[in-house]
Design a protein that fits this description.
Structural class: alpha/beta
Number of domains: 1
Strand order of the largest sheet: 1-10-9-6-2-3-5
Shape: globular
Distance between the termini: 10 Å
Bound molecules: 2-amino-2-deoxy-6-O-phosphono-alpha-D-glucopyranose
Helix content: 25-40%
CATH class: Alpha Beta
Order of helices and strands: EHEHEEHEHEEHEHEHEH
């Protein structure tokens, strides 16, 4: 894992955008997109580069991490809608090639299995953006999730429903169940890029990066992955024991080596 500590959230956004840009400019690429507030600045930066610097997404396709069960795609809080309003509508990524789980499927288990097959059929995800929940979840893999899980239905933790209430009318409006890529599915992506800012994420980041590998902190599964970049601001780095080492390693990173 490479831990990249940036002084500000804006620099986190531009570093994450640099990584995505490298893949997109390399030709046909499969992006793994996350929702939630953490990647929004990165999406805005990518959209700016599309407008101002000729960053062209026409050859790319994308898969979403997760979706609320029971929410129609027309609901503005469905991740199907959110990824369009926050990102896809602002670049030339073909919306028909942005795949997401159907929260209204009459057979959610078949929907989940089919989603994993679709990712496999295109050769897998090249670069997967991730946020992290305050309880250490990635996608919607709550604590206790099998570290090798595949896409499936999960029940949200009360803490996650409270955290996400800000996107809905109130906590009672947050769905209880979701479809999410499993931890094993996520780890099939060739490069994981985690984005986190703010002191509210400091404990989860420390547990994910420096804590034991454990289903208690689902994001700790990243410790098993061969190519992970964790891009965080100083506030989100506040609880890292080895923060000085990560800064030192970044300062002395060979110029030929990319993230
Ligand atoms: C949400 C999403 C995750 C996201 C996380 C953190 O519930 N399912 O994909 O990374 O929780 O969200 P935020 O970035 O808004 O803090």
């Amino acid at each position: 894992m490479e831990i990249v500590i940036r002084p500000t959230a804006a620099e986190v956004d531009s570093t994450a955008a640099d990584i995505v840009e490298r893949y997109v400019r390399s030709g046909a690429t499969t992006l793994g997109l996350a929702t939630g507030s953490s990647p929004i600045g990165t999406y805005r930066e990518l959209a700016r580069r599309h407008r101002d610097a000729g960053l062209d997404f026409a050859a790319a396709q994308a898969f979403l991490l997760d979706e609320y069960l029971g929410l129609p795609r027309t609901d503005p809080q469905s991740y199907y809608s959110v990824i369009r309003s926050e990102f896809v509508d602002h670049v030339d990524l073909d919306p028909a090639r942005v795949w997401s789980l159907d929260g209204e499927s009459s057979d959610p288990e078949a929907e989940a299995d089919g989603f994993d097959s679709s990712i496999g059929a295109v050769g897998g995800v090249d670069v997967q953006l991730l946020g992290i929940g305050t309880d250490g979840h990635i996608g919607f893999n709550e604590p206790g999730s099998s570290l090798t899980s595949r896409t499936r239905v999960k029940t949200l933790a009360a803490q996650t429903r409270r955290d996400n209430a800000r996107f809905f009318g109130g906590v009672d409006d947050v769905p209880h169940q979701v479809l999410t890529q499993g931890l094993g599915t996520i780890c099939d992506a060739r490069h994981l890029v985690m984005i986190a800012t703010g002191v509210g994420k400091a404990a989860a980041i420390a547990a994910a990066v420096e804590g034991p590998l454990s289903a208690f902190c689902p994001a700790s599964v990243m410790q098993l992955h061969p190519h992970v970049t964790v891009v965080i601001d100083e506030a989100a780095a506040a609880s890292l024991a080895l923060a000085d080492y990560y800064r030192y390693a970044l300062e002395h990173k060979p110029s030929w080596q990319s993230f």
